[in-house]
Amino acid sequence: MPSRLVFRVPGIAVLAALLFAICATPFAFAAPGLVAVYVIPIALVVWVLRVRTTADSNGLVVREVVSTHALAWTLLKGLRIDAKGRVAAVRYDETEIGLPHVRARHLPALALISGGRLDDPSVGLGDGGPADEPEGQVVDEVVPDATADSTTASATTNPGADPGAEKVTEDTGRRAAEPE
């Protein structure tokens, strides 16, 4: 088990900022004052190198561009996940601190590194097979009809249709592959 986890943008992203600086050079020297365009790649490099979330057995350290927050596991009420999968640490006084670069898919790793102070949300979910689905719920899958020939069925319902083409189901708008 690792002693700490670091969530950050890969350092190779600094090359994108350097490429931007090279491409901006003709523009920067086109007129006086346009040299200020170099602030953009400098800010990008600072952001890539500075912003991160570090988790270890003591807690979380959230580094942003101009601030750092150290959060012990004992000070956290829990984690909040928004609709886009971003994660925020919630203190007992209900204040939230966003965890840069931490997403919902990282929660099992955070639960492991916290030493059991955070619950692992993936425990008990199973493998997602048919046995894990509640009874009576419709499963979104295509079941081929063994009694009908797919080539004749598509030719009779749509005379100009390509027999090997995919058809779009009307109820979901998704493409369903024709059975072979």
TrEMBL record:
Domain of life: Bacteria
Biased segments, Basic and acidic residues type: 164-180
Keyword Protein transport appears in the UniProt entry: no
Region (Disordered): 122-180
N-terminal signal peptide: 1-30
Name the record gives this protein: PH (Pleckstrin Homology) domain-containing protein
Residue ranges annotated for the Low molecular weight protein antigen 6 PH domain, each copy included: 50-119
Compositional bias (Low complexity): 145-157
Keywords associated with the record: Signal
InterPro entries (UniProt xref): CFP-6_PH
Taxonomic source organism: Actinokineospora cianjurensis
A Pfam short name: bPH_6
